[in-house]
């Protein structure tokens, strides 16, 4: 059996690539998306937004066997099929039937299953071999690789994988083996006929069973290759009443699934290197198959499998793109620029001053201190100017070159769960389908950041400090944001019919560490007078109060911060300030007790902003699992991610990461009172309304309190510029020339939106022309060793049509303590002149959606473990600058 999948080309893939190449150079991408807006409810609308490699499949034209298929008119659109990396793609369809969710012993009814496979079926060219599909890891009815059935229900194509019944007590068993791509394998030989095959049956050359299951049983669903924690399969993707649906799908490379091997570098006959291709398979499931009137048998069994649709997936090759042996150059600071740097990297290796780069993501403030010195340092990437209080100089010696325009995003994946009795029938008909529109104002963001909802604190912990005493005396703080009257007031009425509860919608996933992004998010909150008053201890009109450990007000006669000091905001972090703890009960209750749970254990940090989007894509709210008293030492486990139909998670991320992982983003209220998502137009509109910071006129920001921001109704409020920054007096002239080369490329060719190598990936907006001029002038200054004596050509450093701007607000002064509430208007309104067009070239049209990626050079071995388990967006070495 396994010999059918073995040939010289496949056997040579891993020998030629070498896993060392995968370790030292991980592919990076900024990928497909829908402009950061909500997922289109109509798949036809989604089709208009797809990339040039989008593919539409139909049952009539593409199914292996269209006759007898559950959905004769099924049409499936796959948003991207080429230049893939570790990312999300979107699968949308029409022509289905309204779905029923899984329940008990059935996997549901009238739905699709989606999986990734690596090998082609020798008997059916143009279709994947079902033995090579990553399927079965989620376990459950209708989604396993194996199971029992009656002899008469076994299809002829399944007979080779079947052990017929010998008695009433030993029913007929069918198990579709899994064949991994990597020939070295990791499976004990005694469990399988070949190292890389999981199988419960052995057959002879004629296909006859020579060893039956039960002798050396292999669990085909929970195995060394993939588990419920790592698999990317979709076991249930539901359609609405009109038969249409849309879900994101996580595409995995060899870095996430060695058994699939997708993207492993393969040398072509012409000497070029390509990524090993794979397959995407869509299996329609009706109301029953394989002799059953329910969906409780495997989608890999022939009765279901014969109706599958599939498309080949082409991957960018994993590995080093720059010439081996070239000296690595260090970059440090903002995660926000990582996707762009990754796309530009191959082009930056070329030319006289070409070089591979390694970006150490971490505190921008720390990176700036090093970049401000005269000793050679990494080129810093920042969104705020140098903090002069941390240097010995009285003036800022740094040249600032704008290189990227993007922003913070809040992603969510929340599936409908309407009240079974009170919800209208039209809402009940959409049960299990994703909510695609969510609005947040600054005070709601503050609530998610401050552990103020009841479910954000550990179960069985004392929650009386937020008003909760018991189920019968819950207080006025809602369980989650979904039950918050303020949330329901500004969102679609359908939200009010939902009974969604979970810790993962009582807060939002956020990264540890320090960053400019955290500062900007807190500044967004503090600029709103209602949000600031709430943080200061004033309840909202429904009575909800801030968790006192997060209160900015220490005054005794009001909401008191138990520390005796108000929480200093804005801050560079997302603190877990509440020391609440569920006590250890293992001694008092040895049989059922569990260990202590604090806020970090209950709601852990993500590894990065990009990691937040990845968890949202997977529906993984990072919920705490059950206590394992038999572990050594005893510990809590991790809850398996929730699958489509029951997902509920919110996470703070970046616009490029949201695009990469195809997550839906919340619309945020801007200073003009409008709710805007991080589209390219929204980012560009915010750039047009930015004003200079008080500390450094060459660094601009979207000041929430400025009149220009209040007059920009289409501006996305969490838009941020990223600057490359360095002291031109640094002593290494060669290194400065390399950095200048990077800046020039970033500001010119690197601002072309697109998905090819060297282009500006989705999630970014092109720089306004004055910013380009400033960047080029800064690059000249860095290379020549002297700051420019005159403003860059084009005039202003800020991209506003009218250079008469409001005085800098308190948020521009980077204070650690917020200014008095009275200094802000009580009701932000759109005042002043409307924001004009960008100076210089017109804002480019939205780019084609797709993927752009590049690998980084050697030096990632230390981060291998993390890279293999958490596919960070950038694939660039990440260090902590604490």
Automatic annotation (TrEMBL):
Residues 806-837 have a biased composition (Low complexity). This is PBP domain-containing protein. It comes from the Bacteria. It comes from Agromyces albus. Residues 572-592, 785-841 are annotated as: Disordered.
